[in-house]
Amino acid sequence: MLEREAEQAQLAQAVAALDEGRPAVVSVTGRPGFGHNALLRWTARLAEERSVRVLRVVGSLTERDLRHGAVAQLLTPLGEVAERPLRVLRGDHEPDGLPGLPELLHCARRTPTLVTVEDAQWLDAASLHWLQALVRRLSTGISLALLIGRTGLDPHGPDWPADAAPAAPLTRHLTVRPLGPRAVSALAEQICGTPCDEAFAAAAAEASQGSPAVLHAALHCFADAGHRPTADHVPQLRTLITGIIGDRAGRALRGLTDEATAVLRALAVAGDLLDFPLVCSLAGLRTVPESRLRVALETAGFTVPDGSYERIRLPVVRDRILEDTPAAERAVLHARAARLAYRAVADDEDIARLLLQAPPIGEPWAVHALRDSSGAALRRGDFARAATYLERALDEPQDPLQRAHLGLDLASAEAAAAPEAADRRLTTLLHAPGEGEPWAQLRIRALDMGLARGDDAWGRRAAAQALATAHGSERDDLIALYWYAVETGPEAADVPTPDVPALPEHPLAAAQAGLRAWQLVTHGRDRDLAAELARRALAAGNAAPVMPRLVAARALWLTDAAPEAEDRLAAIVAELRRRNCPPALARALVLCAELHVRGGRLDAAERAADAAERVLPAASWHPLAAPHLLAVRTVIALETGRHDEARALFDAPTPPGSAYGAYWPYLLFTRARVAADEERPAEAAELFKESGRWLLRRHWVNPIVLPWRSLAARACLTLGDREQAQRLIHEELTLARHWGAPSALGLAHLSAGYLGRREPSAGVRESPLVPRDLRTRLTYAWVLAERATEEVTKGDRAAASRLLTELSRLTATHTSGRLAERIRWLTSRLDEPATPDDATLPEEWAALSPAERQTAELARRGLGNRQIAQRLAVSRRTVELRLSSTYKKLHITSRKELRARSLPTERDVTDAV
To answer: Is the pLDDT of residue 168 over 70?
Structure first.
C-alpha cells in the first residue's frame, strides 16, 4: 500500500460514516495492476475490525455472461434472509422486480454493511442493473457503503455509479496513481533486502509505468536471480518488466469489449499515422462514443493521449495486441489502414510499411508508394528494407514491362543486401523476351548494372549470348559492354568469342566510343583521338550505358583534360543518385576518389570514398571491383599521415578472386607505396614491378595509367641497382613522349633527375611541358618534394629553392597533409642562414641513400624520432629503420657517434637550447 495514504484516509472516512447512518458510494479506478482491488480488501479488513458486516463481490471474465452472478455472490452471506430471493435468481425464468434488494436494505438499517465489488468492469448486465437500483435507494439512515473497484475499460461507462446516485455528495471517485521513485526504492529494498540506488529506482519506475503489480512480480524474479538493485543491473530488470507487462496485457485483452478490442487492434496497426477518429473509422466503431472509449482506454493503461492521436503506451503491448489479432483480420486492417493513410496524404514510407503486411491492393498508388519508399531507404543505406519494399511491389498487378523495371530496381537494391540474388535477377532480366526499344533499353541496363557490380566474367558471357538476337542500337551497346568486360575483367585463357565484332577504330556509337577512348589511353596512342572519343561518349548522357561513360571520364582525365572530365563525372554521379543505382553509383564515387587522390585533394577523396561505402558497403563489393576501393583507401591513409591505418589496409585480406581483375595492379601499386614509405625498398621494388607485369599482360603500357616504372626505378636506386633503374626511367620517358601528355612527360623528366650526377635541377628545367593550369598530379608533387629534400640534404640550396618554387606552384590549392608538412619543413630549412655544415657533408655519408641522409641530418641536429617523423611525413617505424641502416653503414651505434662524425663547426639543436 505504498503511496496510498490519501486513498486510505477517504475510504476510512466512508467506513466511519456508517456508524452515523450515512451511506456512501466510492468508485476506485486505476489501471490494471495499480492496486484498486487491494484498496478494497484493505477497507474490508478495516470494516471487519469495526464490526461492520462485509459483503464481497468479485467480477470475473468467466462469469461476465452469467445472469445475476454478482448479486448471488452478494446475497449468499446473508443466510436465511436471502434464501428465497436466491432461489428466484437461480431459477430458469427472468425474475420480476429486484429479488434480494429489499432484504439487503433491511439488513443495512439494522447492521452497518460494507459491499465491495472488485473488477466491476466484468459485471454481468443484470447485476449492474441491480446495483444501480441499490444506489438509487440509498438515503440517510441506511448504513451501507458500496465500494466499486474497476479499471477504466468499463463497458457500462465510467460514471454509472454517479448517474444512479440520488444525490451528488453520496458518491466519491478515487483514482489510483502510479508509484514514484521513492516508493519504488522502498519496495525494492523490502524485496531485495539491500539498499536501492536512485538510478535503479528511477529506471524501475519508468519501465514499469509505476505499476505495483508489475514491480512486485519483477522485483521478486530479480531478487531470486541474485541481483542487487543497482544501476548496473537495470538491463536485467527491464527485460523482466517487459515480459511481465506483455503477459499482463495479453490477459487484459481477453476482458475487453468487442468495440475496445477492435479499436486497440486498429491502433496497433496505424495509431502512429491516423488520428483517433480515423482509427475508430478503421475499427468500424459505430455504437460507442469516441470520447468515452478514449477515456476508457487511457484509464485502463493501454494508451496515452497525444493531441488528436491516441498512442499505445508500450511497444510490448502493441506486439501482444497484434499477436492476438487473427492473421486474416490483421492483413485486412493493414490494407484498410494503407488506403486511409494514402487519402490522408501520409508519408510514402509510412504507407509502404502498412502495405508490407497487407494483401495486394490492386491500385497504382500502392506501387508508387513502395517504389518511392525503396528509394528513400536506399538513400539512407537501408538496403534490406529497400529490397523488401520492391519485393512487395512485385505482388501488385501490373504490366510485364513495369514489372521488369521493378525487378531491375530490386536487383539494384539487392546488390548490397543479397548480391547473389541480384546477379540471378539480372540474368533473368537480360533474357527477357520483350520486343521494342523499351525492352532493349531494359536489357542493356541489366547488363550495365551487372558490370557495375564488378562481375566482368559474367558480363562477357551474357553480352556474347545476347548479341545473337540483338539488332540496332541494342547490338551496338552490347558490343561495347562486351569489350568493356574484356578490358576490365579477368584475363581469359580462351580467345575472344569470334562472333563478337571488334570495336571500330572510329566508332560512332557513344558506348563504343567510350571503350575505344580507354583502349587508346591504355595503349598510349593518339591522345587527341582518345579525348575526342571520350567526349563523344560523355556527351550522350544517360542514353549510353554507365560503365562505358565511366571509363570515358577516366580516359578524358588522363589526356590532361582534368577539369572537363571531373565535371562530366560529377554529372554522372548526380544522375546515378537520382536513379538510386547503388552498384554504378559506388563505382562512380570511387573513381571520383581516385581522381581526387591523383590531384592531391585528399579531403574530397575521403568524402567520395566514404560515400561509395555508404552507397555500397565494402562487404558487398564484387571481388573483381573491391581492390579499387581498397587501393584508394590505402593511399588516402598514407597521404594523410595515418601510417598505422595504411599498414592495416596493406595487410587486409582481399576477397577470393580479387587478383584476377583489372584493379589488382592498382592495389599492388598502392601496397608498393606503403612498403616504400616504410623503408622496405626490396619489397617496394618487387610490388611496383609486379604491378607493371599485370598491366603489361593487358597491354596497358601508358605510364599515365600508373607510373610504376619511375617509382620502381627509385626503389632500385636505393638498392644500388642503377642499371635497372636507368632502363625503367628510359622506358617511361620513351612511352611518355609517345603519349605526349604534359603531365606524363613532366613526371618522367623529373624522375629522370634521380639518375646520374647530372645538374640536380634539370628535371625542373625540362618540365615547362607541364602547364600551369594542369590539375596537380600527387605523384609528380612527391617526386619534386623528394628531389628538393635531397638537394637540401646535399647542401645545394639554389637547386632546392628552384624545386620548392615549382612544388609550391603545383600544391597551391591541392595538397596532402604529409606533403604540406614536407613543404613547411623544406621552407624552414631554406630560411635558415647557411652554415658550413649545410654546404658540406662528411665523406662517409656518401654511402647513405637520400632518405637516410635526410633522416641522419635531422638526428645529428638533435631531433627525436617523433619530431623527425613529423618533419619528413613518415612513420616513426620508418625513422627507426632508416637510422638503423645509417648506423650500420657508418659503423656506429648511437646518436652521439653520429654527431661526432659531423664537422666541428656545426651547431645542432641541442646546442641552441
So the answer is: no
Q: What is the CA radius of gyration of the chain?
A: 42
pLDDT of residue 154: 54
Alpha carbon distance, N-terminus to C-terminus of the chain: 78
Residue 416 near residue 379 (C-beta atoms within 8 A): no
Burial class (CB in 10 A: 0-12, 13-18, 19+), 651: exposed
Q: How far from 72 is each of 122, 123, 566, 625, 714, CA to CA, in Å?
A: 15, 12, 89, 81, 105
H or E element: which one contains 806? helix 797-810
pLDDT value at residue 912: 30
CA distances from 454 to 20, 510, 524, 621, 667 (A): 93, 21, 25, 8, 16
Residue type, 624: L
pLDDT per position as a tens digit, 280-312? 999 988 777 888 788 778 767 788 888 889 999
The closest of 126, 16, 135 to 67, measured between CA atoms, is 126
| Angle between helical axes of 562-579 and 582-598 (0-180°, round to 10) | 160
Count of helix runs (H) and strand runs (E) in the chain = 47, 7
Q: Which of 588, 532, 587, 586 is nearest to 555 (CA)?
A: 532
Q: What is the pLDDT of residue 911?
A: 35
Q: Confidence class of residue 92 from pLDDT cuts 50, 70 and 90?
A: confident
Q: State the pLDDT at residue 493.
A: 46
Assign 901 a pLDDT band (cuts: 50, 70, 90).
low
What is the phi/psi pair of residue 311, to 5°? -110, 135
C-alpha 509, offset from chain centre: 40
- Tell me the DSSP string of 420-483: HHHHHHHHHHHT----SHHHHHHHHHHHHHHHHHT-HHHHHHHHHHHTTT--HHHHHHHHHHHH
